[in-house]
What we know:
Structural class: mainly alpha
Radius of gyration: 22 Å
Helix content: over 70%
Order of helices and strands: HHHHHHHHHHHHHHHHHHHHH
Shape: globular
Distance between the termini: 58 Å
Number of strands: 0
Number of helices: 21
Amino acid sequence: MEALKSIWRKIPSGIVCLLIVLGLFMYMGSIMGAANMLNTVMKTAHDLLLNTVFYLMGICVITGAIGKLFVEFGVVDLLEKILRPMMRPLFNLPGVASLGAVMTFLSDNPAIISLSKDVRFKSYFKKYQFISLTNFGTAFGMGLIVIIFMIGQGYYVAPFIGLLGAFFGCIVSTRLMQRFVIKAYPSYAEENAAEVLAADEDITHNPAIEETSVFTRTLNSLLDGGRSGVDVGLSIIPGVLIISTLVMMLTFGADSAAGGYTGAAYQGVELLPRLAEKINFVFQFLFGFTDSHQIAFPITALGAVGAALGLVPNFMQQGWIDGNAIAVFTAIGMCWSGYLSTHTAMLDSLGYRELTPKAIISHTIGGLVAAIVAHGAFLVYELLF
């Protein structure tokens, strides 16, 4: 075994990468045909850009504008004060952490990092609590965008059931991360993340008084928030085009109406459904999935929730989605929200890169709990209504 490991370490990473990429394309090309495969790649990416990315960007612009407006006129502060009492008993975090939940819900995971750089905000936390903010903030990342997107697909109750699932997933992920940190570094349970503030200082209080008119403040908020929405919309393009195209080609099959592969968009080799069918009873029991294709959403959400959302319209066209799936997708999409691609950068920014594996394990479990709770809550909803 050691000899094999030694040989493996000596193989240049470039060769390994080349073999994986060639193997993947040779596998798909052998089934679809090389020309059809390349045409499908380009046409799928093009259709996703026009019909999914720009739709998502529109949602990002609107939600960004609303979020900035809420910040400007104190709605965020109001929500933060309402949520404060829940923080200690549910998440074992100080009350000001609720501000991070609201900000990430209105924008994206990195919003918690900008808050954590504020010394006043940081001073309320013990070190183990401060580190767990990575899990706490990620569980609500892009929440408003996900919910509005699902509502736009014609589902009005299921997304909010999913929000409930994400809430429970966040509790599990945050508390698990705190336990892991204390077990690895017992001193972090007592050490402060920063110097403690004076008792009368308040992180949510802004002494600056706006002298501009309400109209000007409203206009500036809408335009600035919309601009930040454009930035978010642009940032999801690589994930949607690259990850969604690959996942779709591994999920969809040939065009039965056309009698095989034609090189059209959204054709593929159906590898993921075949693999999922072997353990489909697990997904049916835990998540209530009624179709093996549905497993593609949580797999994609691991890397980018925007890319995962890109799967939904096409799944709906195929008739693979029901209300339960939307509830589970919302829960797991919000809770995971691309944590594999953000946790490393977020913990590195906080200065605790070595704890990344513990954060990923905690959040994986939290996301699964979110999906299970959403499925159970949807079953209860169906029984009652």
